[in-house]
C-alpha cells in the first residue's frame, strides 16, 4: 500500500490550482504518495493542467456536483494509508508533512484525523512559529488542510453527498468521533491557505455562503441529532440567522426563506441519510475546542 494519497477538488480556479500542484510536484515523492485531483464541472481551461501534471491522477467531471460529493467520489479512488486533503489554494508549509503525520498517528493510535494549523501569511508565520505551538484534541478539522487514516475514513459514510459545500468537514468529524477515534490538532502540521477575502466578497460569496451554511447546518441537525433536539436546535439556528442577517439585507432575507424551503424538502429524503449520533459523541463535540491557536 502507498504511504499517502493527496486529494484536491477544484472548480474554475486554474491559477490557484497550478500553484498548489507545482508545490506538490516539487516537494512530494510520487513513489511514496499518489496525487488525485477532481475538476468539478470547470468552465475554464483547468483541464489543460492534466497534461502538464500527467503523473497525477485526474477525475474530470463535465457537470458540477459540488465540493462534498466530488470529494466523496475522489476519495473512493485512494490507495494510500493516509489521505491528505487540501483546498486548491492551499499547500503544506513543511516538505516533510507526510513523515510528520505518520509519526503523529503512530504516537497517538486513537487519533483518526490530524487537523493542520491554517495560516494566511507566510511572513507572519515565520516570525511566530517558535512562539505559538500546541497539540490538543479538538472537535473538528479545517478542510483546507488535514490528514485522515484511510481505514478510519472508510468506517464513516465519507464526505456527505447530501450537501454541496460548507459544512462537510463537520460531518466527517462527528462520524469519526462517533466511531471512537479522536481528532488531533498539531502545530507541527501547517497549511498555507492563500484565500483572497476581498475577491470572494466581490463575487458574492458572503450571500452564497450564508444560504448554503444555513441549509447545511439544518441538514446536519436533521441527519445526526435525536428527534427530541430538533425543535431547539433548528429554532435557535433560524432565530439567530433571521435577527442577525435576514432582517438587515434584502438578499439575505430572500436567501433565508430559500434555505427554509430547501430544508423542508430535504425532510422527505432524510431516511436515506439519517445516522443518529451517540449522546456521548454530542457531549464530546460540545466539550472539545476548535482546531485553532
From TrEMBL:
Residues annotated as domain Glycosyltransferase 2-like: 5-161
Entry-linked InterPro entries: Glyco_trans_2-like, Nucleotide-diphossugar_trans
SUPFAM superfamilies on file: Nucleotide-diphospho-sugar transferases (SSF53448)
Keywords: Membrane, Transferase, Transmembrane, Transmembrane helix
A Pfam entry, by short name: Glycos_transf_2
Transmembrane segments: 252-270
Top-rank taxon, per record: Bacteria
Annotated GO MF terms: transferase activity
Protein name: GT2 family glycosyltransferase
